[in-house]
Amino acid sequence: MSAEEQPEEPSAHIDKGKRRAHEPTERTPLLGATSSVLDDAVAPQNSSHRGLRSQLTAVFLISLTICILGFVLVALLAWSYASRASNLKPDDVIKNDVVFRGPDKIDVLNVTEDRTLWLNVRGRVGVNAGSAIGVDSDDDDGLFRDIWKTIGRWGVRTLDRVTVNLTSIKITPEYDPTMVLVTLDIPPLELPLSVDPPNDVSWLTPISTPVRVQLSANNTLLLQFLKESWKLGALSVQADVGQAFIRGGSLDVDNWRSNFRAKLSNIRTDIRMKMPSIPGFPHPGRNVPMPALSQFVTLKSFNVSSESHKLNLHATATVLNPAPPHVHFSVPSLPFIISICDKTAISLAAVSTAPFSLTKPNITLSMSGDVLPISTSSFSVLSRFVSRYLSGEPNTVLISSPLIEGLEVEAEFPAPNPRPQLLRDVTIRDMKIRPTGTMFLASGTVEGRVVLPSGINVGLDIFRVFPDVIIFDGELPSSMLHKGHNSSDLPPEVPLPDPLPEHAFGHIRPDDWLVSVSVPVEPEEGDGTSYEISAKVVDAPVEVLPGRQKQFSNFVGKVIFGSEGATAGISGFAAVTVAVDGLPLHGPGRKSGEVVLSGLPFQGNVHVGKKSLFMGETRELQQVMDRLKHYIPW
């Protein structure tokens, strides 16, 4: 078909909206065709949605990847720090990274009878966590290691502190870890964490914590450890902790930090401290033996007084302070028992100290208490103790405490210095000597004053006296003043002095105690309670000392032929029995609070006239002359 024959294409029809619409036929589609203009508009919109979706998907995938990588990185960092922390050796951490300075102050809160001390300890503490896990700064670190350490330091600062809960701490000697000296219990502690701390101690944090101290019940073990440590010059112990539970954050705060937890087991570390030097003693070490504990305690003053059926005691003692100068230590009132030594310890007094603090070089202790009831079986022991004290001789006492059962420390109870002169102004008034059979008998009234040492203010009733007298021709020689013979034995057997003193010729010793009467008198300045005493002597035998017949005859000759008689010096020792007001001592047939004081020296002079010698009877002269024939060659 040629071009001319081809049918003409209908010319495009433009519908201007004024033409009547075609009538629908059976071929007309039910839905009209979509406008091409709408299709063209929807196509670009779908394309835009697909691009946005792709972008969001890409962003999500990239973010997810970054998060996964970040999580993996954080996990690797956390694992690296945790790995470092898990490989830490407790002993290395304690020695190198945990820093404690102190104790700066120790307060004793309480002491119980089961040998338990409750202390409050103050000090300064810090943990160099940066050093422990290896994140402290180092100029030689590379870039990545420096970044790793920086993140680690940031983590330590963010964690800030940890709470440590320890099981009981057992302190044992280094030479024998099986012997437990002390057991310590400490409540949970907050330990601050630090990184890159300065070289001084300014970064340490002050802490104050209660500590329960349980002493070993084996006193021998404790003393042995002290003696060994003194010989070595150092306290060498091991501290054993069963487990330590570590939790991040503060003690009473539960937050995200609390998720950081760790546990250390079987912690053991060595502790070595130099033994402090004590003034007046050899330096510890070099196998030097430890001084006796009694040398650490000195009694400075002592006072006893009667009050409403009891004896009150007040004393002051000093104790050498072995603690370092920077340690402040405060102690509450502590009870002690003072005992005197015999075959078994006899409890004498119960005292309590006033609260005290450590001072250098000595600690001053003020004590007060009462004398304890004393059984009658201990009568002689107490009497011996008091007699030695009043005779200027020291006594040994035992100091113990109900808080530490079984531990007794020997201490010296010093005698007064100067030696007290308990019996003064002793004389025999109206002394008479008469012959009977082959011997002479003396009678008269023994008079004198009993003056207690300063500080002893007790009520006394001196109701018995037992004098043991040596008589001298003339006044007492100056060589005998304030001297006496051996008083180691108690009455009635007192040995004669050996050698016999110059001019001594006679010895008077009654056959029994002399009943005496005592009256309190006003004491002189510086003296304690004073009493005047008197006792009648009736027919006490006068023994002429061996080899002193000439001195005896000279004395008798002075009395017989002298116009004013003669003076005789007397010297010796006496025993007195006193009832002490308030002394809780009871026994059948004895006065309450009865004590025998023996070995009391005395001195004096007696005037003997003719009437005294002859008893006022002329017929006695012939008897005297007959007796003298045994001593004087006529």
Summarize the structure.
Keywords: Membrane, Transmembrane, Transmembrane helix. The chain has 634 residues and is an alpha+beta fold.
- Unreliable runs: 1-14, 482-490, 615-619
Number of domain modules: 3
- Order of strands in the sheet with the most strands? 18-17-13-14-16-11-10-21
Question: Mean pLDDT across all residues, rounded?
Answer: 79
Globally, the shape reads rod-shaped
Summing up helix and strand content along with how strands pair, one would put the structural category as: alpha+beta
How many helical elements?
9
Biggest pleated sheet: 8 strands, mixed
Strand content: 35-45%
Give a count of the beta strands, DSSP E runs of length 2 or more: 27
Q: What is the end-to-end distance?
A: 214 Å
Portion of residues within helices: 10-25%
Keywords: Membrane, Transmembrane, Transmembrane helix
Transmembrane segments: 58-82
Region (Disordered): 1-34
